[in-house]
Design a protein that fits this description.
By secondary structure, the chain is α+β, with helices and mostly antiparallel strands. Helix content is about 35%, strand content about 25%. It contains six helices and eleven strands.
Length: about 220
């Protein structure tokens, strides 16, 4: 009887483990991207283990400056704020390298990650492998999108900015709720959190070494005048 109960307990805990493992949030990579707008900054990170091809593509577009002067063409409160395709959304012309990367189509890397507020999800046409450079920032939970659109990251800072965007006046055009004024991505930049951490560690170490040097010199003067 004890063995039977013990076996059931083991199976139960194994099941619990897999439930929590499958529902746990994916790991963010160390890269961070910041979009600067008139309403504040929006910072986000990537899920390289969830959608590696998508992450490489979007991050390359960022590094090439493709999102600069682009805009949010759609802001549907409680649903999504969607960034336009850079090929047609920028106010500045693109160079050949930018255009070549922007026109690439990315395969649909669909996953079990849920569409909840702050998630970044690729835009696409009916073809599941038609994503290019447009993506949405979720402004609320949208379970009907799960498994249908490629999630590749999430917002790490700037929810206050998103709330400001949600308060702007909008108009409806077909299925889209669009802002009445252009919400421009003025500029963008990126950084690595691991490098930031190393810089901080180096700064702390330098201060400690300097303090140690001062203490050693004080003791030398005291003991060996």
């Amino acid at each position: 009887m004890w063995k039977s109960n013990n076996s059931v307990s083991i199976v139960f805990f194994i099941c619990l483990f897999f439930v929590f493992a499958s529902s746990s949030e994916p790991q963010l990579g160390s890269a961070r991207v910041v979009f600067q707008t008139d309403y504040g900054d929006i910072e986000f990170g990537f899920y390289p283990d969830v959608a590696p091809i998508t992450v490489d593509h979007i991050f390359k577009l960022v590094r090439l400056g493709c999102y600069n002067t682009n805009h949010f063409f759609r802001v549907d409160k409680g649903f999504v704020a969607q960034v336009a395709d850079v090929s047609g959304g920028r106010s500045a012309p693109m160079n050949e390298e930018q255009r070549k990367e922007a026109e690439k189509k990315v395969i649909g890397e669909f996953s079990q990650v849920k569409h909840v507020r702050g998630i970044l999800s690729m835009g696409r046409y009916e073809d599941p492998n038609s994503a290019q450079s447009s993506f949405s920032i979720l402004l609320g939970d949208a379970p009907h999108l799960d498994g249908q659109y490629a999630i590749f990251g999430k917002v790490t800072k700037g929810d206050g900015t998103l709330k400001k965007l949600e308060q702007l006046p909008t108009r409806r055009e077909g299925i889209f709720v669009m802002p009445t004024e252009r919400i421009t991505i003025l500029s963008s930049y990126y950084y690595d959190t691991e490098m930031e951490s190393c810089e901080l560690d180096r700064s702390i170490l330098k201060r400690r070494l300097a303090a140690s040097a001062v203490e050693i010199e004080r003791q030398r003067m005291k003991c060996f005048p």
